[in-house]
Write a structure and sequence with these properties.
mainly alpha, elongated, about 80 residues
């Protein structure tokens, strides 16, 4: 959908994605889907809420994903 949204999970990036990177990806997604780079004042609340919800969902997704064959990280080692 949006080629400028980068993959945020290992092994594409060796360390965990930062909250800033996750929020930036969520913002790009909301901009693409809504068609607005910056919403009008009357749409600001719903726009910002969507960014926050997608940020939270993305964080849960990345926290739960297990990449088979990837090097074990401290986070994965702690789960076992």
């Amino acid at each position: 959908m949006c080629r400028s949204i980068k993959t945020l999970r290992p092994p594409v990036i060796p360390e965990e994605a930062t909250e800033e990177e996750i929020r930036a990806a969520a913002l790009q997604y909301v901009r693409k889907v809504s068609g607005f780079r910056a919403p009008a004042a009357h749409n600001r609340e719903v726009f910002d809420r969507a960014v926050e919800e997608i940020t939270a969902s993305t964080m849960r997704l990345l926290d739960g994903i297990e990449v088979r064959g990837a090097a074990r990280t401290e986070k994965n080692a702690a789960r076992t």
